[in-house]
Amino acid sequence: MSDCLFCGIVSGRVPSKKVFEDDATFAFEDIAPRAPTHVLIVPRRHIDTIGAADDEALVGRVFLTAARIARERGLESYRLVVNNGEGAGQTVFHLHVHLLGGRPMSWPPG
Ligand code: 5GP
Ligand code: ZN
Is the pTM above the cut of 0.70? Predict the structure, then answer.
């Protein structure tokens, strides 16, 4: 999608601090980190929301990339978050997993 911010980041048209990439996924530092580690992991292919996703393998790849980055950073405890819809806090409508770690986290999230 040409007007999608995260498609722009995946393509390199929009600058980002890249953390990891492979054939299906791309990961980069969140511009406004909410924890010492705050990485966003996205599918290269545009999907609006997890609710609109229909590719099990690709969604699995996104989550396993997140777990891989956490492992490589030595994080034993961390949180993976997917916001679906404006009411849940989704602001960028290109599916992304937040990897948050490096500080204690409360439950449930607000
Ligand atoms: P959402 O609220 O949709 O779940 O998460 C969107 C995330 O994207 C937010 O944490 C926000 O800080 C991050 N973000 C928004 N614009 C940019 C940007 O231009 N670059 C990067 N790296 N992150 C962004
Ligand atoms: Zn997109």
Answer: yes
